[in-house]
Amino acid sequence: MASNTDIPELERPLLPRGRMRIPRIPPKAITLIVVIAAWQMVAVLNGIRPFYNATLVPSPGGIFFATIDLWREGTLWTHLSASCLRVLRGMALAIPMAVVLAYMVATLKWAEIILDPVIEFIRPVPSLALLPIFIVWFGIGELTKTIFITYSAFFIIFVATLEAIRDVDPVLKRAAGSMGMSSTQMAYHVTFKSVLPQIMVSIRLALATSWFVIVGAEFLAASEGLGYLINFSRVWFKIDTMMAAAAMIGLLGLASNYLLLATERRLFAWRER
Length: 273
Prior knowledge:
The structure is a single chain. The protein is mainly alpha-helical. The protein is built from ten helices and no strands. It is 75% helix and 0% strand. It is globular, with a radius of gyration of 25 Å.
């Protein structure tokens, strides 16, 4: 009996015209859906027979309707865009600074002697401990929050890039030198392209940290943003709004992480994962 692969292409049954293929739901999305559904089910059971304070632990439905209320009031986009722009500005400064300084420390002896001890001395100091100092130095404007995000993200990218550059295979460098590459060409085609996967991983880690610390910055020095919204809702005991803002931060972190993962898969399709 002939197999399905033996049937000529034109003789194979076709899907009826107009029918669309149902998209496959990713397993990780199913996991989140199951967790949220279970949480909502517990909230329903609590409504029937209370066993915890529903005001302190809102249900997913309550958080969703609180988000809708923010959207109807016109404040949701204001807080979202403010936090996103601050994180993007901080990351836009941290990435080039960290990569360039890591390359200098890894390749130039004088930079290693001068820069490395200074950076390693500052690196253990928590960014949240320096936030009050940044406010005194730079005020409570956008500059303080940008510097705060840059400081928090810089060291993650710097350390990962520095170690990746130091681990570049010297055989690749000797091969590039034998082909007559200049130092600039070698820096780009050998060093940078070799460490780019590690840089992308460090950017993902730094971005997650940025979403974490932006809340602290907006607690103390902001009149808008998701962190400000959480603090404002705490004062007025609006727990559902607090949870809605926290959920927004979680969704932003999740979306940015998967966006960078998709970028990695396109850039480094040759890697086996």
